[in-house]
Specification:
- The chain is an alpha/beta fold.
- It has ten helices and five strands; from the N terminus they run βαβααααβαβαααβα.
- It has two domains: about 120 residues, Rossmann fold (3-Layer(aba) Sandwich); about 70 residues.
- It is globular.
- The structure holds adenosine-5'-diphosphate (ADP) and magnesium ion (MG).
- Adenosine-5'-diphosphate (ADP) binds next to α1, α7 and α10.
Length: about 200
């Protein structure tokens, strides 16, 4: 297995932006959000189990997951959420593991938004990098990016690990309160460290 850095952080913290910078420097990037979307697309690897567990009402006409309906269900029903996670998490972990193993770069950045919350991919990471910025900035960036309201962003933040708890579990912290160029500099520093660690791994 190549050396693997798990990258996590709260909504709007800058995970995707930082991952793209690592990729530009030559790291391989594996994104579990992407894997999750593929698993729940038409004919995706999770759809047979989802149909069997929840019924055809949660499958859209094209065979993909009816995301709105499922979101509404699991929002108010912890048992349903657990059942969905029991289907998705092992599949996401298996796909992530296969992609990390197949990567030919010097090291892999494995982007897992809920790395600590679900724990599903934690054992794949040799090291954990947390992208961090102030909550005000998270709200500002997430609302600007996707047009969701500040209250919706706050609700998502409340469902995620608190900043301090996330940072306490990090090996490295990527401070993303300043601008894009400051982020790029810090990514460059970490890239050099990860190359060195990967050579010794
Ligand atoms: N240092 C930064 N300065 C300005 N804008 C940023 C910075 N980092 C990220 N952004 C912007 O903030 C938004 C959220 O970043 P993104 O990387 O998508 O976050 P995440 O993947 O953690 O949810 C995006 O529109 C991105 O372009
Ligand atoms: Mg993202």
């Amino acid at each position: 297995m190549p050396f693997c850095v798990g990258l996590t952080g709260g909504i709007g913290s800058g995970k995707s932006t930082a991952a793209k910078m690592f990729r530009e420097l030559g790291a391989a990037v594996v994104d579990t959000d992407e894997i999750s979307r593929e698993l729940t697309a038409a004919d995706g690897g999770a759809m047979a189990a989802i149909r069997a567990q929840f019924g055809p009402g949660y499958v859209a006409a094209d065979g993909s997951l009816d995301r709105d309906r499922m979101r509404r269900l699991v929002f108010g029903d912890a048992g349903a959420r657990k059942k969905l996670e029991a289907i998705l998490h092992p599949l996401i972990r298996a796909a992530a593991r296969a992609r990390v193993a197949a990567a030919s770069a010097a090291y892999v950045i494995l982007v897992v938004p809920l790395l600590f919350e679900t724990g599903a991919c934690l054992d794949l990471a040799n090291r954990v990098l947390v992208v961090d910025c102030s909550e005000a900035r998270q709200i500002e960036r997430a609302t600007r990016r996707s047009g969701i309201s500040a209250d919706e962003v706050r609700a998502i933040m409340a469902s995620q690990l608190a900043r301090a708890a996330r940072i306490a579990r990090a090996d490295d912290v990527l401070d993303n309160d300043a601008g894009i160029e400051a982020l790029r500099r810090r990514v460059g520093e970490l890239h050099a460290i990860y190359l060195t660690l990967a050579r010794g791994a």
